[in-house]
Predict the 3D structure of the following.
Amino acid sequence: MKKYIFIFKSELMSNLQYTFNIFVGFIGYLIMLFILFNLYRYLYSDSSEIINGYTMNQMVWYVIFTEILWSVSGGRKFCSKISEDVRGGNIAYNINKPYSYIGYSLASHLGEMFIKAIVYTILAMIMGYLFLGMFPSLSILEILALILISFIAIVISSLLVICIGLLSFRIEDSSPIYWLYSKLILIFGTIFPIEYFPKAIQPILNYSPVYVTTYGPARLFVNFNLDTFLNILLFQLIYLILAYLLCALMYKKGVKNLNVNGG
Amino acid sequence: MLTAVKNQTRITALSIKYALMREMLNKATFTSNVVFMVLNNASFIIQWVVLFSIRDNIGGYTLKQVLLLWGLAAMTYGVSRFFFAKAFSLSNIINNGKLDSFLVQPKNVLISAITTDVSPSALGDILYGYIILFIYGFSFGTFFLYTLFGILGGLIVTAISVILNSLSFWFQKTDVIAETGNNLMTNFATYPDGIFKGAVKLLLYTLVPVGIATYLPIQVLTEFNLVKLLIVLGFTIIIVLLAFLVFYKGLKRYSSSNLMIARI
């Protein structure tokens, strides 16, 4: 575990050099937030109206939270990196190293995203307050529980992205699979909560990655409930184990067939 | 003058053709890139179906009009990323001194530099644009206008990217600014302008010209208006000329890094 903490720390320190990029990148987040804020302000005739169980304020905070998780996951670049490691043969350098490639990629990605997570969360909370003039009411314990759930959500997202990136062992370019996966997460859990979809598909979404990576944590943020927290935590732990096992299996099978030319 | 334009067009077409042939070497990857991009774009239909189940009209648009907006935005994106893919990573070419190989060619440096690569997935965007047009309602007039607006929009988006990326001639780390500017154009283009009010709306027709690249064309496609068509055409000419001006002004500051690279 020590070596992964070291990888995490080195990546974090190296990314401290690029805080300017994080702040500029936040503009992109802010624009998306601004568009969605305008959209929901248009949809809700007044702030007390309830649509599918959510008031306008709850919807805006929901989107603020899911967009943080979405941006901090940084899936597109991460998937390309894993895919490029496989296609370019870089993965071969990791085979004889005293760490697991999955553990290394995960620790390095989390280290890269750590500063971004802090900056985005602080700025997004300020923006949310400026837009709405209120915060969701949460106790210190509830905030700590949310941090835990959000951290696990990002780890699961990262592991799922690693799985998609490792598909490059079979298909040359796994980016198209990532586009589709990311759009499904974006539409079914980031822009809207699950309650916005027909009742028939809600149970499916409740068992999908959407529940543990975006919807669950954001649902808790706008309306904290101990039972929901425990339920999400249980599902997250199951997903965490399954996603890791899937990654390990894909890596093991893929490396067996690896053929690197040159050096 | 005419011969020079003809030669440049021929060279550009050949450059795009060879870049496409290179991408098509692996047919499975090429096809999956195109098909998955169509599916990727189509997934957003779900978003709008959900929104229109709440309200019949969003920002003055019906579901069909929003789909057309999405289709045109995809066309615009596709045209710019397919024909001028390198315009979106121009700052990288400038910063790494990779312009040398284009400077020694007796052809337009900017056009040569931005047409050396194609993005196969952008073909999926163009294809998706036409699928949406067929869903909206096909007629030869609409098809012609839609294609014209797709090209004009693509040129506007490319020109803006060239201007933002050319800032690298003067400043450092402008790639993030260029990327943010490009995302700004894409994000606004996929939402109806009716949901924005006041200063933001003004911004969308000036500083972030999504209004001219996408919203005005949708208005013309819904109800033909020659003045609006000419505004889009005039704006495209101005912004493209401005992009050339900024790039060539910046090029005077360019210094080679003596980087040896092979262009394959």
Notes: Residues 140-166 of chain B form the longest helix (27 residues).
